[in-house]
Amino acid sequence: MKLKICGMKYQDNITKVANLQPDYLGFIFYKNSSRYFEGDIPELPKEIKKVGVFVNAESGYIVSKVKKHGLDVIQLHGSESVDFCNELKQTLLSHSIEIIKVFSIKDQFNFDTLKPYETVCDYFLFDTKGKLPGGNGYVFNWEVLNNYPSTKPYFLSGGIGLDELKNIHAFTKTTASKYCYAIDVNSKFEDKPGLKNLEKLQEFNTQL
Q1: Are 62 and 36 in contact (CB under 8 A)?
Q2: Tally of CA atoms within 13 A in the half-sphere of 92 that contains its CB
């Protein structure tokens, strides 16, 4: 199972977290977020993919961040349309960018929503539906994913912490997890917004 650590903010912390060798590091380019990333991303091992997280941003803003930071992946965390995703992918064709489209779940979800996005996104990400676009800090009902109708690989997100390790291991034995590609963590591993706790992340990464 791949690991994505999202909401990185502080230079020294980013470098230390990168030493844990996660598969993805996420940087939030949404100004209303307490984890809004400013400045430059320190040099990372080439094996770690840099993910830019955007919420209903204009395509020009996204493209500028891709070029400035050398992003590998774009995560769209708002109500971005199929056409927007397609146009963005075509605009960034020469950059070989991957697109993750986020959908929020609580206790139920209409999976028909996914169908139009199948051809314009590389991954889906399922997060907890809450007041914020992300980082709400609690888990949605994973049993909803028993009805997942797609073969598109997806990221599992939403309030995942050390306490969920047992549930994750149980989940990986279910048919719902067949296309679960990665686990996405954020707020449950922080000492404050954007500052990740290395010991907790190390423990999680070792046991995942």
Answers
A1: no
A2: 26
Q: How far apart are CA 79 and CA 56, in angstroms?
A: 6
Catalogue the long-range contacts made by 158-165 (C-beta closer than 8 Å, 24 or more residues apart). Answer: 158/105, 158/126, 158/127, 158/128, 159/128, 159/187, 159/188, 160/184, 160/185, 160/188, 161/185, 161/188, 161/189, 161/200, 161/204, 162/188, 162/200, 162/203, 162/204, 163/188, 164/139, 165/204, 165/207, 165/208
Query: What was the pLDDT predicted at 137?
Result: 59
Instruction: State the Cα–Cα distance between residues 35 and 185, nearest whole angstrom.
Output: 13
Total length of the chain: 208
Give dist(CA 176, CA 114) in Å, integer. 16
Reported confidence tier of residue 46, pLDDT bands at 50, 70, 90: very high
For 89, the token pair is: 């992918």
**Is a pLDDT exceeding 50 seen at residue 134?**
no
**Distance in angstroms (rounded) separating the CA atoms of residues 126 and 142:** 9
